[in-house]
Amino acid sequence: METPPKHIFSPVYQNQFPSPYSYFIPRTVIARPAPAGRGNPPPSLVIASRLLDFLRSSVLEFFLDIIKSMQTVVNGVLTNYSDINPKQKKTVVILHGWGSSISYWIPLSNLLSPKIRTILIDLPGFGSTGPLPGQPDVPEYTNFVRSFTQKLNLKNFILVGHSFGGQITLDYALKYPEDLNSIVLIAPAAIRERSKLVQTKIKLTKIIKPLFSLLPHNGFEKFLGWYTPKDYSNSNEYQKKVIGKIVVYNLKSYLGDVKVPTDIIWGSEDFVIPNMGKYLAENIPDSHLYVIYGANHLIHLSHLRQLADIINQIIAKRYV
Question: What domains can you pick out in the chain, each with its CATH number?
Fold first, then answer.
C-alpha cells in the first residue's frame, strides 16, 4: 500500500470520489454580511465581493477546462478517472500500481507537458472504481482497460503503467499493439518468479495449514505474515482474490513478442521488484532503459520531478 507523501495536499472527497481540483483552486475570501445594527456594507466591500466571485468562477472554469474528473461505466463497472487537457490530441494514459489510485499520480500529471492529454484511471477495486465480477486475473484487467480506451475513442496513445499497472500495460501491448504509440513500464511486475526460499516457506505452510483449523478464522492469515508481503495483508477480500492470481501471471516468455516501442524506468534502490530493468531492456525489442539512482519502487513519490522529466523526454521522442 502506498503512503501519501507529506508534500502533497490531501484531495477533497465528495461521495468518496477524489477530486483533483483541490490541488489547483485557491481559497477565496467571502465577504460576510454586516452585523445587525450597523447598516449596509460600504460600496467598496460590495464591489470587492463581486470581483472575488467573478475571479472565483473564472478560475474554476479555467481549471475545469484543463482537468475533468468524472465517472463512466465500463463493462458494467462504475469507473473513476481524471482527464487532463482533454482538448489535446496527443494522449498519455497512466495505470497506477497495487494499492494505489489516481490521487497519487495527480502531482506527476501536473509536471507533464500541457500539450499532452493525460488520463488517469482508478483500476477496478481501487480508488473509487468498483470491482470486476468473479475472480479476475491480469487478462480481465487488460480487457477492462481496452474497453475504457475504446469508449473514449483513444488511438495512437502512450500507455504508462507502474508495478501492477506495468504488468497490465505489457499485457495490453502484447494483445493490442495496434492501439498504441508506445508503452512506458515503470518498475513493472512483469516477471513473476519465486525464489527458492519463498517456495520452501509456501510448501511448509501447506503442510502445517490443517493445524490452524482450531484457531480463530484469521489465525492462519496472521501466521502468513511472516512470509507474505504487506500487499496481501493490507488488501480487502476482493483484492486478495486478485493478488492470488496476478502473482503467478508471468510474461517472461513473451518479452520478445512486444511489437511497440518500449521505455523502461527503474529505481536503482527498488527492492520490491529488484534487478529486472536491465533484463527487460535486453529482451524487449526496440526498448530503452532509464535508471533513476537512489529511487525505490515508488518512484513517483520519492523522485517525482526526475520521473516527470524522463516521461516528458519520452513523450517528445515518441510524438515527433
Answer: 68-192+249-318 (3.40.50.1820), 196-243 (no CATH)
